[in-house]
Design brief:
- Belongs to the FMN-dependent alpha-hydroxy acid dehydrogenase family.
- Its EC number is 1.-.-.-.
- InterPro entries: Aldolase_TIM, Alpha-hydoxy_acid_DH_FMN, FMN-dep_DH, FMN_HAD, FMN_hydac_DH_AS.
- This protein has a single domain, classed as Aldolase class I (TIM Barrel, Alpha-Beta Barrel).
- Helix content is about 40%, strand content about 10%.
- The longest helix is centred in the C-terminal third of the chain and has 22 residues.
- Bound molecules: flavin mononucleotide and 2-OXO-4-methylpentanoic acid (COI).
- The site of 2-OXO-4-methylpentanoic acid has 5 residues, from loops.
Length: about 400
Amino acid sequence: MNSEIQRRHFIKWIGMSGLYMTLPIAGCIRENEASTEVDLTSLRNVFDVEKLSKKEMGEDALLYLNDGVEDRLTLKANVEAYKKIQIRARRLIDVRNVSTGIELFGESWDSPLILSPVGYQQLFHPHGEIATAKAAAQKKHLMMVSSVANHSISTIADKTQAKLWFQLYPTTDRKITKHLLQQAENSGCKVCVLTIDHPVLGNREVGIPLLRKIMSTRKLKMGNFEGIFPDGIMPEGTSVIDPSMTWDMVGWLKENCGMKIILKGIVTKEDAALAVEYGADGIVVSNHGGRQLESNLGTIECLPEVVDEIDGRMPVMIDGGIRRGTDIFKALALGATAVCIGRPFCWGLGALGQQGVELVLDILMTELKRDMQLAGVTSIQQITKDYVRS
Ligand SMILES: Cc1cc2nc3c(=O)[nH]c(=O)nc-3n(C[C@H](O)[C@H](O)[C@H](O)COP(=O)(O)O)c2cc1C
Ligand SMILES: CC(C)CC(=O)C(=O)O
């Protein structure tokens, strides 16, 4: 696709996406999600889907999606760290029947793969979070809905069958925070994922100026805030980023909502211990996909110390850099209860809408299942640290 067509796609997508919130969705570039020109069998892995997303998405949206901070050291570490771990396979095991099911907070899930919270998904496709949630429901994966989603969690819950957890950026005004929590609970959400790696915005030299440009010229609506501010746009002086937040927030959340509280962004055993002390119910080992602090370890390198500290007292999830079934396998082997992906499902969304998200989920689950068979395990519970060497 040449750059002129790309530019037109971008403008059309932005125009139809609700960033201009009064414009109808009808007439968006892809009425039925799938591009007839794409042979789906040519998309063999998430990198093929990423390549397609580069053709289909506008340049600005791509930069926002794929951006990291400064010299991209954390971003690269997340991906590279998986390559330093090898799998130890066992032989002569009947692997005709493989189960990928797990349990989380007493509920059974068909898959250990979860969709991480990603904001502003209408930048990537006009149907945004609705397309993602439909795909998650269709393929039976849990989806975490961002505070800064373009569609509110209540709209997503109304329009789809997806199982949703709510990711909270608490905002600087606790009245607004309470409204967000109520909205999530009223939508049937049982878990609140508090993001704690975001006291200030990371130094995203490319993506954030672009986002600001888009926000200032097009009014980027945040669906969850529509119930508070008529057009979903926060007034000057209120921010989703609260640099004053401390560990007391866990107790405050417990007093102000009935949801379980998961902390997303823990990368050390010290903070894992504090998570227990302050009463959190779960952890996501995360560095925000390399979009916050530079020079972090890859998240998979942080996982063992967190898992050791937690010692089975709560679920420990992980995200950052997961691109293959073998990455999922390695994270599970090192003690993750479940794993989450961000950019890969957005590449699917940008490339092919709902169908693209489904494709990415299918690719990763097919890889995981085959990797389990090749390694000689038939259930997620059997994948222990004996199956990896780093
Ligand atoms: C475009 C984009 C937007 C994101 N928005 C949010 C967000 O609103 N809230 C949040 O907690 N994390 C957000 N994240 C971080 C993801 O939840 C996740 O931690 C990260 O993408 C995982 O790394 P991966 O992209 O390598 O899979 C965002 C990530 C991306 C790429
Ligand atoms: C800028 C934030 C509000 C959204 C986010 O978390 C991200 O872009 O990584």
